[in-house]
């Protein structure tokens, strides 16, 4: 008889905000590890080490839970991008002559775009937001009210996209954000359809190419350390 594997429980946290976060973290882990079919309210509560009544208090329906998980994953990506890089020890620093301001700005934008490309590619391959949204799209055929929630969600995500582009010093006008958002969704869906090394490489290459096109005039190339296609 095959031994049943019980997933490790997250430690319960104190406070309303941390309880909600613990439930969302558990949902993200289930969705990432087992896909949409594993995401039930009972399993999420068990994975978080909390009572199901806690989950239904914050997320009365599975739709509420899926929408919150998708947005939680996006916000986690923004937090990762907002984390400052580790400082270089003084003993390891060199002191070359200061470059022109324009060159410095171009390199800064390219470096920010490179970081954004790496984080976006990682989250798309991880698959949490696209799996949640694909599950909701299917469910919306039977429950039209889900479509209303999805429309609002897409609007919020567009604002997140514009914020990410602006934070990296890239073109963040409405048209650029629309095309970039739509392209990310396309890459995510194609990857979820195949889930192989080729689709993973295409995600990395596609995100890098998109961001390269949004660098400001006089831009500096992003480099190829994150792009296996170059």
Automatic annotation (TrEMBL):
Lineage of origin: Bacteria, Pseudomonadati, Pseudomonadota, Betaproteobacteria, Rhodocyclales
Domain of life assignment: Bacteria
Alphabetized UniProt keyword annotations: DNA-binding
Ligase among keywords: no
HTH tetR-type domain segment(s): 17-77
Organism whose genome encodes this protein: Rhodocyclus tenuis (Rhodospirillum tenue)
Residue range(s) of DNA binding per entry: 40-59
Gene3D superfamilies: Tetracycline Repressor, domain 2 (1.10.357.10)
GO molecular function, one term: DNA binding
Pfam families: TetR_C_31, TetR_N
Name this protein carries in UniProt: AcrR family transcriptional regulator
């Amino acid at each position: 008889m095959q031994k049943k594997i019980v997933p490790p429980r997250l430690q319960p946290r104190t406070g309303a905000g941390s309880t909600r976060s613990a439930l969302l973290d558990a949902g993200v882990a289930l969705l990432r590890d087992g896909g949409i079919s594993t995401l039930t309210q009972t399993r999420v509560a068990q994975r978080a080490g909390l009572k199901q009544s806690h989950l239904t208090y914050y997320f009365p329906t599975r739709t509420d839970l899926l929408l919150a998980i998708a947005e939680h994953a996006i916000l986690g990506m923004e937090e990762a991008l907002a984390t400052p890089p580790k400082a270089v020890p003084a003993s390891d620093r060199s002191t070359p002559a200061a470059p022109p301001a324009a060159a410095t700005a171009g390199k800064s934008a390219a470096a920010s775009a490179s970081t954004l490309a790496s984080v976006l590619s990682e989250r798309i391959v991880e698959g949490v937001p696209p799996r949640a949204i694909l599950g909701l799209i299917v469910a919306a055929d039977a429950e039209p009210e889900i479509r209303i929630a999805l429309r609002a969600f897409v609007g919020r995500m567009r604002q997140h996209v514009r914020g990410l582009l602006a934070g990296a010093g890239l073109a963040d006008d409405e048209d650029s954000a629309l095309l970039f958002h739509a392209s990310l969704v396309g890459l995510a869906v194609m990857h979820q359809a195949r889930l192989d090394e080729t689709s993973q490489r295409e995600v990395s290459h596609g995100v890098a190419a998109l961001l390269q096109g949004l660098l400001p005039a006089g831009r500096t190339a992003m480099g190829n350390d994150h792009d296996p296609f170059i």
